[in-house]
Each structure stands twice: as C-alpha cells, then as structure tokens.
Design brief:
Layout (H helix, E strand, L loop, with lengths): L1 H4 L7 H15 L9 H4 L3 E5 L11 H19 L3 E5 L1 E2 L3 H14 L5 H31 L10 E2 L3 H16 L3 E11 L4 E3 L4 E13 L9 E3 L10 E4 L13 E2 L2 E2 L2 E2 L2 E5 L11 E4 L5 H10 L26 H14 L3 E14 L7 E10 L5 E2 L12 H6 L10 E2 L1 H10 L4 E3 L2 H11 L4 E2 L1 E2 L9 E4 L2 E4 L9 E2 L3 E2 L1 H5 L2 H4 L6 H7 L5 E7 L3 H15 L5 E7 L2 E2 L16 H8 L1 H9 L8 E2 L2 H26 L1 H4 L6 H22 L3 H24 L6 H15 L4 H10 L21 H27 L4 H13 E7 L2 E6 L4 E4 L6 E3 L6 E3 H35 L8 H25 L1
Parallel strand pairs: 1-2, 3-4, 9-13, 19-27, 26-27, 28-29
Antiparallel strand pairs: 5-6, 5-16, 7-8, 7-15, 9-14, 10-13, 11-12, 16-20, 17-18, 21-25, 22-23, 22-24, 30-31, 31-32, 33-34
This protein binds one RNA strand through strand 8, strand 14, strand 15, helix 12 and strand 29.
RNA sequence: GGAUGUUUAGCUCAGUUGGUUAGAGCGCACCGUUCACAUCGGUGAGGUCGCAGGUUCGAAUCCUGCAACAUCCACCA
C-alpha cells in the first residue's frame, strides 16, 4: 500500500473538509427520504435547528449548538433512525430592523425610516436579511452540519406566514388574543412596544425626592420619577397605618408645579408602611404596579409622558415638550423654591432599558394586542394526553392532560407539559426556573410598531374589524403593526414541518413531537416556553420531548465574548487554522450542560493535536493492514483479548452516555481509550506480536464509527482511505455485543492484562523507590525509561523497548524477571512486598470500620431501632463483608 | 429582596444513588525519541475537595448555618 506511506504525517483538515461536505450532500444522506433501507424502517428522529437571526454572522454559541445537534443527528442516523435535521433562519423582526437602521445611520442617514418610507426601508431590510442568510448557511456547512437543505425554512417565508395567520385566527376565535388599552413597555428610540423579556435593567444612581404636592397636602411622598407625578391620581397608604388611616377615602386637589391634580387617598395592602414616608404616589399611566393599584380602586389614568419620551401638554405650558431629564431638574427646583421639598437622597436604582438599542424604556398606556395567558378557553382537542404511558392515567382515566371541551388556560398547558414529563428539560434544574417563570407570567403583548415582521392579520373599516390574511374588500385597511418575532418562532417545531398545510403536515406528522430541542440556556423563556404554548395549544402535544440547554461560551477569563472587549473567537477564523473537527471537539468535550464554558485557543489546539493523533493511529493501522506479517492468522493473545474487551466496554458505555446527553463524558472516555489503551499499549504490542490485521481492522472501524459524530471529517476521510464499505456517515453504530469474544474471557482478559500493566508500573516505581544494585540498575534504567509494551510471545513475557531491544520477563507469577542475557534479575517479589504492606494497612482499617458497623447495628437491633430494612438481612450482609475482609487480611499475612 | 447554580491540583473542569489510595486535560520539572505521530513518548511534583457544625462504621457526595462568585426574576414608590 504505497499510497498509505505517502500520506502526510500531519492531518491536513482544510484540504479535505469542503470536498467531503460536498460528497455527503451529493449522496443525499442529509435527506431522510434518501437514507438507506435500514433507516427507512427506523423510527423517525427529528431536530429543529434553532433558526439563527438574520442579523449578521454566527458566533461561538451557534457553533456549539451546531456541534451538539450534528453529533446527535449523526449518532441517531448511524443507529438506524430516520434522522431529519431541519435548518432555517429567523427574520428576528426588531433585531434585524434595528441592525439595518443602525447601518443606514452609519451611511449618513438621519432618520432612515422617515427618509425612505415603509416600502423602501423594508426593501433594504430584506436585502440585508438575505445576505445574512447566505453567510449563515455557509458557516453552517463549514461546521459540517448534516442538515437537510432541501427543507430549509425561514420564519418569514410564505408557509410560515400561513402558520402565523392560522394561529392568530384560532387564538382570536378562542378569545385568547385581545386588543386592550394597557400599560406596555415603550422604547422611545425605536418607537415600539417591547415584551417584558426584551426589557433589561441597568444599575444607576438616581435622586429620591421626598416632598408634598403643595403646601395644603397632608401627606409627603417619595419618588425617583418626579416627572411622572403630573399623572398621579391617588396616594396609597397601608390600610392599618395609624398616621394616615384618617385620610383614607378623602380626595384632595393639590396644585403640583402648576398643574391641578385630583388625588384620592386609598388604603392598599401592597404599600409598605416602613418604606420612605409610608405613602405612595400612584401614577396609573406610567407604572405597572400603580396600574394594578389603580384597577383595585377604580382610579383614573392620566398619561403625561408621550411616545417621544417628552412631557405632554397636560403638564402645563411650562413643562409640555420638555424631556424627562429637563422635567426632573425643573420639578426639583420648583418644589425646592416653594419649600415643599423635604429631602433629596441618592439611591441605587435599576433603570429599565431596551435590549436592542439600550434606550431607557418608558411605561405607557396604549392600545395593543395581547395574548391572554390566564384566561380559560375551551379546548379544541384532547391535549397533552398520553393515557397509554401512565398507569395512573389508565386507572383513573385522567391521564396527564385535558379533554376536548374542558376549560383551561395557556399557563396551565405550559405547566403540564413539563410537570407531566412529556417535555424534559436538561439539565433538570432548569425545570424549577421554568416553573417559576410560568407562575409569574403576565399577558403577552404581541403587537410591535416596527415594520419588519408578520403583519397583524386584522383589518379595519370605520368601526368594523375583521381577522383575515387578505383584504376583505374595498375600504378596509390593515392594522399597521407587526407581530412579536416570538409569535412566529413559537410555532417553529410544527410550522417548519408544514403545518397548517394539510399535505405537507401529513407528510411530516411522524416527526412531531420532535426529539430534542438544543439551544442556549438564555433562551429558555423567550422561546422554549412559547413553543410549548403554541404547540400544546394548536396541536395538543408538546413541541419536543427533550430540551437540552447548553451554557454560554465565554472567553478564557470567563467574560462574555463581545466586540468591545475584543475577545471574540470567530469560528470562521478558527476552522481554517485548526480544522472543523478540532473546533467541534473543543466545544463538545470539557463542559457541562447548562454551565457556561470557557474557551481558549489553547484548548482548540489541544484537540487539533488529538485529531492528528487519530490520524496517525489510522495511518499506522492502515500500514499494518497492508503488511504481510500481520496477515497471518493471529492467535488470540492476552493483549488481543484485553483490547477487544475494552472496546466492547467502551462502546457500550459511550453509547449509554450519548443517549443521556453526556457528550463530554463520552468524548473523554473515547479519547482515553483511543490514546492510552489503543495507541500507547496495543499498537506498540502489534509491532512485535504479528498477525493482527483482522483485529486492527475491527479496532479502526469501531473507533472511526464512534468518533464520527464528534469529528465527522477526519473519520470519514480515513474510512475512505481504508476502503471500508460505503460511507461512514451511514455506517452501523458499533454494537458491543457482536465482538468476537466469549463471555468468560472478557473479564479475565481485562483483569489479567490490567494486572500486568500494573506490574510494569510498579516496577517503574520501584526503580525510583528502592535502590537497586548497580549492576541491575543499568537494566532498570532502561526498563523504566524505554519500555512501552508488555507482550506475550512463546509462552514468555516480553517487554518491548522503543529502541528495538527486548527484555524477556519469565515467571511473572513467581515475581522474577530476567533479561535475555540473564544478567539482571528483577526482584518483583519486592514489589509485591511493598504493596502488601499498604494493602494490609488499608484492609485493617476497613476491618475496624466493619467491626464498628457490626457492633452499632447489633446494638440498634437490640433496641429495636430498625424501622424499614429487614434486620436479619442487614446483619447478614455486613457479616459477609466482614468475613471477606478478614479473609483478605489472612491471605496477605500469609504472603508476608 | 427572591430564586437557581458554582466553590475539588497553578489553570479549565470530571467525580452517576455515601464505600478501596479523589481523577482527566493543559501547564510545570526531569528523562527520552531517525522507520504511525515533537501536533510525539516516558516519569514525576502538585489537593486540609470554600468555611463551621451535624448525621453515619465510613462524607467531596446527605442535612444545617455561613462566606465568596455567577446568572435569572422582582424591584421600595
């Protein structure tokens, strides 16, 4: 095999990756309909790719997601499932619009939306989004993602728009979508509402003013937002507060900074009498908390801040049109001059700001569309019911869900999906966070005043209103608002499978609920919860069986990767440098689900080294397979039995770990097996013991298969070089039971070889610990420094040295070793002696503990302290253990 | 303020129902290597498992309290 010899010593990733990906794609295996028969008969297995936002390029977090999903899909495909991975992108409404707006401003426009108008502006956004899509698709391919491009979806394409319309219509008819005048989060910068989740907070220092509205007002109040006080309609106090009790029910008409107010004094439990003055100025128009109080006491709502974050004319000519900052200063000055200001205090406050853009968010009352999460509605179908799976469900007929026609709220559906275990969140601890979030969920404001997004399918003509996806006719105008981006991505698992189009949906029905949703933990609420909502509502089933959450990818110091810190690791720069396989390994191994990961270039370099190690292992095995000496039928030696037993062990363990999302542990185990057992021991032995071609082939095949989901490129490439059957991507996952080993041999082979390995290690240690006679020491030094394998040959044991010479070790059981020349005798019995001392000490300690255990257990038995366990059995177990320990000690003592 | 995590070797982290001598990778020190691989091999040093109690024959693991850090939620006007 001359060609094998000519292969480069170092693996050259970039030379093969693109070609390899093109080959896979051309072979059609990414499409489940074109998979081999074995998979056609297999169970459907589907992953929906979380569609990346069309806002630019992919980052390390995406790369991690892709690596995990591709690992799962390749693993299940090899296991014979009908595996479908649907790729796609998200229009991301506000995020994309904001991005484009910022770009246009950079290009010199002052107010792009005004300058271009709705149509022209949207053209620019669409153009940007399309370019972004191309970049994302390219990067996804570079990562080696084996997703079905023939089924690529977009959250803003025609079919997904049909799903959005269908859902809106259903929810509207069920009374779950409503228009209402309520307080919403308003972003003055981008002139749109925001959901609670799109609002973040920033710690700032601000002034806490304590004052009275005017000199005749009897109660002082405190505020950090003096500008909003023009809209106060009440002062709330605790109903039992002795200071203010007498005022409750009265109405005052103070003049605040020139504006006449009407202030009712109300008693409300929500007020903390210990904070500030114990009295709260209620501003129903600009605080959600105050709006709640206002609702309880039927208070009027008076807006005083406009959409542009400037004061409204209601505040009087002196203040109208002023900014919030200006108003604050002026109010403070006015109060101070009038002698109404009691105190000014610096306090820490969390200022709400917009997630995109960062402008302070105002709370304003507006007419908007809402999804009612707490409103009961009549179920259209049995929902979340799986009676066959549940013993109690069958027994009581209740199942873990609701029946058609029952009254239920969306919130209850979201709870049940996870409570019943029909959707599992991995790691489990996130279930608690999920429940907590659902419990505190408020109605979801779904209308946005931005232009890029699914238009709200509602039409108006005068006072008439109709829900429709097309114009109902002459004179009808569509609602100018668009839908929150999560309204469309909430239906992703089923809209991407064709719902509500009957033909498409039926063709893909078997893939839903999808197997697993893999995404970042930061997106639990935004997305996961909303997918559960949409899917349980529309289909009556969960969107996915498992939600696997990965942590954030941080830099080596644990900081978030960001442009301003300049610590971004870009997958597109790393892949040409280290190879996709190395980048994937560094994202898959060495981290824990749900826990943030620190990534450094050094780590990727380490996995590049491993990729190269696997390459060289393969190269060596390929050479051996072509070597005539290796072709001879090898007797199954101890080493053979050992390595095959290990392989069997490892493959079953790795399979189990991958099934339970323990990717890191699986990878580590595989790495240890590949590097330590296979390369460092078995391959060294194969240099001396010949006739191993068959076993080497088995080993190489199995190792390539198991590594394939982790590092698809190098494994598939070697598979091709070895001329193994077909493509590795559709090869059968190794089954630990088919290895050519009798059961009895497995353990024996392993333990025997392990004990020899231990012996070698002991000898190395002894060389250091015990001074050996000079004549012998020479040999020992050689042994310790060079020996790389222990092998069986002609009924003798041979230690092979890297420099080519061998030492024959005879009579291992008796503990002697002799070199071929017979010059040096190694006192292995000494090794035994040293170990025996330690062993004895350890066992003696264990024995003492067990004796105490016996004593305490017997005492408990006498006092009848046992409640559950059968005492006889406990005592018997314990005594057996004790006897075992005593036996061991005796054996050791005899040998000493 | 509430919730959820984290705290194990110099660094990054494993450690699955409590049970031999607490592990790995990187880094470090020393030794070595022409024929699979210096993107290599061998040997070694390095840990009171955050702190304080408790349960147990036995605790990194279970319980209680404390501390530090992180994230999320709610924010006191």
């Amino acid at each position: 095999m001359a060609e094998i010899q000519d292969l480069p010593k170092a693996y050259e990733a970039s030379a093969i990756e693109d070609k390899m990906y093109a080959e896979w794609e051309a072979s059609g295996v990414f499409n489940p309909d074109k998979l081999p028969d074995r998979n056609q008969k297999g169970e459907p297995y589907c992953i929906m790719m979380p569609p990346p936002n069309r806002t630019g390029t992919l980052h390390m977090g995406h790369a991690m997601g892709m690596a995990v999903q591709d690992l799962l899909i390749r693993f299940e495909r090899m296991r014979g499932k009908k595996a479908l991975w649907v790729p796609g992108t998200d229009h991301a409404a506000i995020a994309t619009q904001v991005k484009v707006e910022q770009l246009l401003i950079k290009e010199g426009m002052k107010d792009p939306r005004k300058e271009l108008g709705r149509e022209k502006f949207l053209e620019r956004v669409v153009q940007f989004a399309d370019e972004s899509r191309n970049t994302i698709v390219n990067q996804t391919r570079k990562m080696g993602s084996s997703c079905d491009w023939s089924r690529e979806r977009y959250t803003f394409d025609k079919e997904r728009n049909a799903a959005v319309y269908q859902l809106f219509k259903m929810m509207y008819e069920d009374g779950l979508i409503e228009r209402g005048y309520r307080i919403v989060n308003w972003d003055p910068q981008f002139q749109t509402t925001l959901s609670d989740d799109e609002v973040q907070t920033k710690d700032v220092t601000t002034k806490l003013l304590t004052f009275t509205y005017d000199k005749d007002f009897p109660i002082a109040i405190s505020t950090t937002r003096p500008e909003s006080k023009f809209g106060d309609t009440a002062v709330a106090v605790h109903p039992n507060d002795e200071r203010y009790k007498k005022f409750i029910g009265q109405t005052f008409e103070p003049v605040f900074c020139g504006k006449k107010l009407s202030i009712q004094i109300v008693g409300d439990e929500a007020v903390d009498p210990a904070f500030g003055t114990g009295a709260l100025g209620v501003t129903p128009a600009h605080s959600m908390i105050d709006a709640d109080i206002a609702q309880r006491h039927n208070l009027k709502t008076v807006p005083v801040i406009g959409k542009d974050a400037k004061m409204l004319p209601e505040c009087g000519p002196e203040f109208a049109g002023l900014s919030i900052e200006e108003t604050r200063a002026k109010v403070e000055k006015t109060l101070s001059e009038a002698g109404l200001l009691k105190s000014v205090e610096e306090v820490q406050q969390a200022l709400p700001i917009a997630e995109r853009g960062g402008a302070p968010v105002e709370q304003l009352p507006m007419e908007q569309w809402f999804v009612r999460v707490n409103k009961p509605f009549t179920l259209r179908q049995d929902t979340l019911r799986k009676p066959s799976d549940s013993f109690f469900g069958k027994l009581f007929g209740t199942g873990t869900g609701w029946k058609k026609g029952e009254q239920v709220t969306l919130k209850q559906l979201m709870m049940t999906a996870v409570e019943s275990g029909q959707t599992r969140i991995i790691p489990e601890q996130f279930e608690k966070i999920y429940f907590h979030w659902i419990n505190n969920l408020r109605d979801w404001c779904i209308s946005r005043q931005i232009w890029f997004g699914h238009r709200i399918p509602v039409w108006y003509r005068g006072s008439e209103m109709k829900v429709s996806d097309v114009s109902p006719g002459e004179g009808w105008e569509q609602d100018p608002d668009t839908l929150d981006t999560w309204f469309s991505s909430g239906s992703w698992t089923f809209s991407a499978l064709g719902w509500p189009d009957q033909k498409e949906w039926e063709a893909h029905r078997a893939y839903h609920p999808t197997a697993v949703l893999e995404t970042g933990k930061d997106i639990l609420f935004f997305w996961i919860a909303r997918m559960v909502l949409m899917s349980t509502y529309a289909l009556g089933e969960v969107p996915f069986k498992d939600a696997y959450l990965h942590g954030l990818v941080r830099d080596e110091q644990g900081r978030k990767m960001s442009k301003s810190l300049g610590n971004i690791l870009d997958p597109l720069e790393l892949i040409p440098k280290y190879g996709t396989d190395a980048v994937r390994l560094s994202l898959l191994i060495g981290n824990t689900p749900g826990q943030d990961t620190k990534l450094s270039e050094q780590k990727i370099e380490g996995y590049r080294n491993f990729t190269n190690k696997l390459w060289n292992i393969s190269r060596f095995i390929l050479m051996q397979m072509g070597d005539e000496a290796q072709q001879a039928k090898g007797a199954e030696t101890l080493a053979d039995r050992w390595i095959l037993a290990r392989l069997s062990e490892v493959s079953s363990s790795v399979t189990k770990k991958l099934e339970t999302y323990q990717f890191s542990a699986a990878g580590e185990e595989l790495r240890d097996f590949t590097w330590n057992d296979l390369a460092d021991w078995y391959l060294e032995i194969a240099k001396v013991e010949k006739g191993k071609a068959e076993i080497l082939k088995t080993l190489l095949q199995s190792v390539l298969k198991m590594w394939h989901p982790f590092m698809p490129f190098v494994t598939e490439y070697v598979w091709g070089l070895a001329k193994f059957d077909g493509k590795l991507i559709v090869a059968e996952w190794p089954d630990p039971l088919v290895l050519p080993l009798a059961k009895g041999e497995t353990k024996e082979g392993v333990s025997e070889f392990e004990s020899l390995r231990q012996l070698v290690t002991d000898m190395r240690r002894l060389r250091a610990e015990n001074g050996v006679e000079p004549a012998k020491q020479v040999e020992f030094v050689v042994v310790g420094a060079h020996m790389s394998a222990l092998i069986e040959q002609n009924n003798a044991w041979i230690m092979r040295l890297v420099n080519g010479s061998c030492i024959s070790v005879s009579s291992i059981p008796d503990g002697y070793a002799v070199t071929p020349s017979g010059k040096a005798t190694i006192g292995l019995n000494l090794a035994g002696a040293v170990d025996l001392e330690k062993e004895k000490a350890k066992l003696t300690k264990e024995l003492e503990q067990l004796q105490k255990y016996v004593a305490s257990t017997e005492a408990k038995l006498a006092n009848a302290e046992f409640t559950s366990k059968a005492p006889e059995k406990v005592i018997a177990d314990m005594k057996a253990k004790l006897a075992e320990a005593q036996e061991k000690v005796k054996t050791i003592e005899a040998r000493l």
